[in-house]
Amino acid sequence: MSIIKDDYKESFWKIASEIEKEIEKIENAKNVKEKINEIKKKIETLKSGFLSKKGIIASLLNQLSKLDQQQRKELGKEINEFKQEIESFVKSITEKIEEKEKELKYYTNLDLSVNYTFKEKGHFHILTIVQEELMNVFAELGFEIIDGIEIEDEYHNFEALNIPSDHPARDMWDTFYLQNGILRTHTSNMQIRILEKRKPPIKAISIGKCYRRDNMDATHSFQFHQLEGFSIDEGISFLDLIRTLYKFVGKYFGVNSKVNFVPSYFPFTEPSAEMSVSCFACNQQNSQCSVCKGTGWIEILGCGMINPVVLRNVGIDYEKFSGFAFGMGIERIAMLKYKIPDIRMFFENYLEFNSLWG
Ligand code: PHE
């Protein structure tokens, strides 16, 4: 009797564990809905096979009447325990499959065929877009792109660039002072940082944020972005600088843009110049133009031949090597290219403005 019951136990748990495994792997089924129904049927069959009036437990209990009282008591207890095991297994497995069924209903109710377009999808800020465009143009011109740092020391931001502490140019580049340095006033610090590690020939650009103590107005901000570029090798001349910048303007603003250079002064370049491009708004036709103030030109960058003092400061033989450098304001370029009238618009976070370029 007990042996028969043990056989039943074994076969019950065999089927039970198969059902459990099937539930665990239900997600892999080709047709999950069908699989759920199949498992539910199996649970029903197991339940009625063991627990119904004509089921195994009932027939085992029936057979008890043939036994004497002592045996009846012992076996009766065992059979009842088995019955309880079956009942609690059936209960928990039924809950499990119902849970799965609920999940399935949730997922199958998702109608993925609906053609929904997000109204507020994310996109890059216009300054990021312009930076990427500029990087592409300079990459085409053979410049490598090097990351920069914003917290700088006075040596790399000023002294190494030939701006000693008593130099009047310091006023123009006054900045924010931190406990561990200053916020850089231009990306020219990267000329020094890069040349401390690398030796010529080198042709690179570096883009990033800069800070000055400027009050905010339509064309000034205490925080802005610059692109610094430089090229150093044997025999680099002013002509290489002009040629590079012409190519840049042609590629970025269009071949019909005119370019103008005027002499300027920077302690770290000698000779120095400022470059302007012809006004996109009036095409040099409107003496009342608000964008170029009627001059026909818009200044976009400072440039020049790297001062030999700077090369000496980073240990480069300035008799053998020469180089040019230029620095442009990204906001200025973006304002020109995309006709943005006020620099503050970049930073005010008006969604209407930001989404114009989405
Ligand atoms: N660093 C200069 C500025 O911020 C721009 C510049 C860069 C000029 C490189 C010459 C060469 O105004």
What is the compact description of this entry?
This protein has helices at residues 2-24, 32-51, 56-63, 69-108, 126-140, 154-157, 169-172, 189-197, 238-253, 308-313, 330-338, 351-354; strands at 144-145, 151-152, 177-178, 181-183, 202-211, 223-234, 259-266, 269-278, 297-306, 321-329.
From the structure above, extract its key features.
358 residues; BirA Bifunctional Protein, domain 2; 2 domains; seven-stranded mixed beta sheet; 12 helices; binds phenylalanine
Describe the structure.
This protein is of the alpha+beta class and 358 residues long. It has helices spanning 2-24, 32-51, 56-63, 69-108, 126-140, 154-157, 169-172, 189-197, 238-253, 308-313, 330-338, 351-354, and strands spanning 144-145, 151-152, 177-178, 181-183, 202-211, 223-234, 259-266, 269-278, 297-306, 321-329. The strands form 2 sheets. A 7-stranded mixed β-sheet has the order 1-5-6-10-9-8-7. α1 packs antiparallel against α2 (32-51), α2 packs antiparallel against α4 and α5 (126-140) packs across α11. The mean pLDDT is 91. Residues 186, 188, 228, 266, 269, 302-304, 325-327 line the site of phenylalanine. Phenylalanine is lined by residues 186, 188, 228, 266, 269, 302-304, 325-327.
